[in-house]
Hints:
Structural class: mainly alpha
Radius of gyration: 19 Å
Strand content: under 5%
Number of strands: 0
Amino acid sequence: MSHGDETAPFFGFLGAAAALVFSCMGAAYGTAKSGVGVASMGVMRPELVMKSIVPVVMAGVLGIYGLIIAVIISTGINPKAKPYYLFDGYAHLSSGLACGLAGLSAGMAIGVVGDAGVRYISPSSNIYVVVFAHVVNLLIDCGLLEWIDRIK
Length: 152
């Protein structure tokens, strides 16, 4: 019985790592950048600190999305149970990169908009842009889940 290509799991695990690393980088950047805005809001208007914490929480969730995709990808890699070919490895690599880079860009968007919003504008007026960046990342991840499920 053929177990597929020997190098294919490397690409699959590379995709899982890319999903996790890039999503967590976006989450860290978004949290740090928004946290600076929350700190300045605490000095200027302390009564609005709890309203301005939303971008920090939303940026932190991006890392969890990357973790979920990484776990799904890595559990799909078992060359002993079923053959794992280069197509599977490349598909997992591309889906991991798509998830990770979407998380990175969404984290950057949430960080920049969250920081500027809580510093200069009332926190309720810019929340739509932050939610939009988060929803776009979530839709990409849901599409990736469907795509990963199709190649199994």
